[in-house]
Amino acid sequence: NAGVTQTPKFRVLKTGQSMTLLCAQDMNHEYMYWYRQDPGMGLRLIHYSVGEGTTAKGEVPDGYNVSRLKKQNFLLGLESAAPSQTSVYFCASSPDRVSYEQYFGPGTRLTVT
Amino acid sequence: DQQVKQNSPSLSVQEGRISILNCDYTNSMFDYFLWYKKYPAEGPTFLISISSIKDKNEDGRFTVFLNKSAKHLSLHIVPSQPGDSAVYFCAAENTDKLIFGTGTRLQVFP
Description:
The complex is a heterodimer. By secondary structure, chain A is mainly beta. Chain A has strands at residues 4-7, 10-13, 19-25, 31-38, 42-49, 56-57, 64-67, 73-78, 87-94, 103-104, 108-112. In chain A, strands 2, 4, 5, 6, 9, 10 and 11 form a seven-stranded mixed beta sheet that branches. By secondary structure, chain B is an all-beta fold. In chain B, the strands form two sheets. In chain B, strands 2, 4, 5, 9, 10 and 11 form a six-stranded mixed beta sheet that branches. The relative contact order of chain B is 0.34. At the A-B interface, strand 4, strand 5 and strand 10 of A face strand 4, strand 5, strand 9 and strand 10 of B.
């Protein structure tokens, strides 16, 4: 049981390039989340999903898109990377609406130059 | 506007003593709160939670206190151990989402 995994662990992009971050969970959780963590800012929610085929905007959605085609996967896309998107990205999942505890992946460190 | 606030960016405590981490929130509709612990280069892990119908919840060395009238919660760690050195985030549940504070870095020294 791997829990929540994230791919890749590290990535350096040039401004304007695109990339997709992959999050996978093997716990059959309904809810999945993407956060970014910046110094002094805590964890801020980018997008989330309450089930396969659904997505919703979080606190800081601009510049990002997401897809949840399969229940176990949640993809975060950057269409045209900007230096302001340099951050550590965390994916999380939770079983359902009743259980508020979220399980986090190990993170992806992204640098945009 | 920050709805969940951790006003102390860092805290240093001697091993064996009590660590008290504080968290304030602004929205009186929040009714479930969680604490997460984060080591460097790892994802946050769940530590302890509390519902607004309680004012205290204990789990081993960790106790969370909730003061609804003051919109304040605190995490007590007794006794503190070097392995507790990490960043601690408090979070409030809000309609399928968690709103996190900015974190407090705890350092436990021998």
